[in-house]
């Protein structure tokens, strides 16, 4: 069932390259964990306050995993990695919830443009999978120097809270500190609100603003303290004595939500894979132009390593078939040789329709350079066949989960359910790359166009300048196609260690079953023949 030579030099070389990338990833995660740095972390603790991740740890059930989302948000930008917000999925009193927590060590927990994108993505995940949202609030609101990128789109956060509530998806706000100005609407629009004594400060305008606007003298406590909101305004549903008390109360609130998942659960006691997950370190070659067999990945993430392949002899550059992961059935589409031809596209469209008929979630494992180009393939209908696959992906209604293992270029990224096609979750391996095309191909295309332009005008072509341009373009596209760059811009939900793939998929599959898993029984667009 496996042809991977884990003792050979090729495997060792690939594993070493992956290990080096994982070290770079760990450094990026370290930046997020550091928050605003030691100075501000020490100051925060000196005030008797817990860190954002410590609050989450006390909130969740003991010894249960927390699937952190978008941990690299803002990486490579002018803002702190992590974007002053921690988001993820965890279990509270046996109920899976989306949890968000402001990191007050980063500019007082204020929101920058990446914070907003990260929070909106968390709400999107909660809505699609019908997961309750628990917000651990301590934020001074918008980071004022970047307000132009926050204020107008930021209203979507408040819209989301009301839409979640209207859809019957509970929202809980636990206020540990400031929640001012627009931030006051987070508890104001949540179903359940908990405030910490002498810590929570919730008001539309603080004392200085009130003084400027009305001439009234006031103090924090009478204007927006927890005691006032619990006794007078009624905004606080629960009055907590300290942070641990607030988190205990939040757990009891979630325990009383009466959340029930629709439909059948996973198979009990699923068999583990027959092969070691550590082998996944050496599957992907350093040069993504070298193909690898995705079945070597499948047998290391599927229950019992069982994979029932669909049409194995037709369109062999795309492996399709049925498996289970942590007891949940999945249909898998995995790129086998990189390029998608007409046969692969047609096979994919049929397979996606079958999964929709059977209400089975789909897992897309990416390693594609895109759809095949050239006269023979254009005449053979690659455009309409590629469009058929994209049509099927676009109109499929079962949950989709995508994992970028290697290349994910061109329209192949779309056909394999890239970010724009709204997979429930999308994760990348450190080996992944994604762009309109590979760096050398893109640089070569620009060179050919420039050369043809010069010839059309009867001008000599500067070969030295061309070489410099190609090198610069290749370097730029290479940097912009790397997973940490893309993850920093929230084009995925995180870069994961390949060895953790099965665990991450299990958590995601459990989450997507928070909503009904129902496929499209029709409603696909016109398939061109």
From TrEMBL:
<dbReference type="InterPro" id="IPR011762">
    <property type="entry name" value="COA_CT_N"/>
</dbReference>
<dbReference type="InterPro" id="IPR045190">
    <property type="entry name" value="MCCB/AccD1-like"/>
</dbReference>
<dbReference type="InterPro" id="IPR029045">
    <property type="entry name" value="ClpP/crotonase-like_dom_sf"/>
</dbReference>
<dbReference type="GO" id="GO:0016874">
    <property type="term" value="F:ligase activity"/>
</dbReference>
<feature type="domain" description="CoA carboxyltransferase C-terminal">
    <location>
        <begin position="272"/>
        <end position="529"/>
    </location>
</feature>
<feature type="domain" description="CoA carboxyltransferase N-terminal">
    <location>
        <begin position="18"/>
        <end position="269"/>
    </location>
</feature>
<dbReference type="Pfam" id="PF01039">
    <property type="entry name" value="Carboxyl_trans"/>
</dbReference>
<protein>
    <submittedName>
        <fullName>Acetyl-CoA carboxylase, carboxyltransferase component</fullName>
    </submittedName>
</protein>
<dbReference type="InterPro" id="IPR011763">
    <property type="entry name" value="COA_CT_C"/>
</dbReference>
<dbReference type="InterPro" id="IPR034733">
    <property type="entry name" value="AcCoA_carboxyl_beta"/>
</dbReference>
